[in-house]
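Entry 12.
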Amino acid sequence: MPNTSSPVSTPTKTGPYRTCEFSDNMLVQQLVGPHNANLSRLEQRFGVVLHSRGNTVAIEGPPENAALTEIALTRLYDRLTRGLPIDEGDVDGAARMAVPDDTQVNMDLSIRTRKRHISPRSRGQAKYLHVLNTNELVFALGPAGTGKTYLAVAKAVAMKLAGQVDRIILSRPAVEAGERLGFLPGDMREKVDPYLRPLYDALHEMLPGDQVAKLLLSGDIEVAPLAFMRGRTLSNAFIILDEAQNTTAVQMKMALTRMGENARMVVTGDLSQIDLPAGAKSGLADALDTLKGISEIAAVTFTSRDVVRHDLVAQIVSAYDARDTRQKAMKPPR
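Predicted 3D structure (tokens):
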């Protein structure tokens, strides 16, 4: 099966034809994209050649690759029939999700917010959205660019809009990433905002700016450093603890025990990006070890194949993972 996280080969005219026929010619025009841009992207992903004519797309290439291409084209066309546009990210996502007979991938896991209609763009994201629907406490682990925080914020906003929770609590430990920023001017909110900016950015992707401001002012959305959580009970809330690899074991226990009635919590982090002082054990790693026997708690691990940013990001993550694996193999046993 081709690796659909990045372009895999140059299209070659080999193998039999496979034809996809669609009912709406206007939607097919959107499917192929301007100057056949979407088809060209799928050709690069799967190593096939695509021919568009009228309401049909013919696929020429190895049978396995052609079958996966047909799955991707069908998913994109289905998205268009629901009145949703497609862009490069959607095309790449359809390629990653092109897996035959995968029940979870075929489920409708989309999330609607005021500004976005969000669908999974990788198999890891599909699994993540599934457990967000079914578990009250979820750990999401993996590299940057996999959608850990973005999808958690989307789910929180959707539940808030549907009246399923009363408020959203977004928190991060205030730990600098490998550098010391020194004294930060301003009041408390101005001091902690630089640490929490990624959470604000995700909110603005889901809701109009004036609504975000209103919900922040009313306290229906609260963005705060982890230290502000001590002593509180958070009921009827969707709680997201981001960058949790930078918590201590004491902080993590404190955060997890804030859950009150009708609370959901998502804990995200990347154990390869710990910025704690040397020798300090990550609270995220400690929690995963301590809580692994509790069946109601779900953990989803993303890999470089789930990176939905620029193709180079997936390749960069894979290169660092390979380096770390080599270094571990070279260390003498204790």
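Annotation: The longest strand covers residues 167-172. Confidence is low (pLDDT under 50) at residues 1-13, 176-184.
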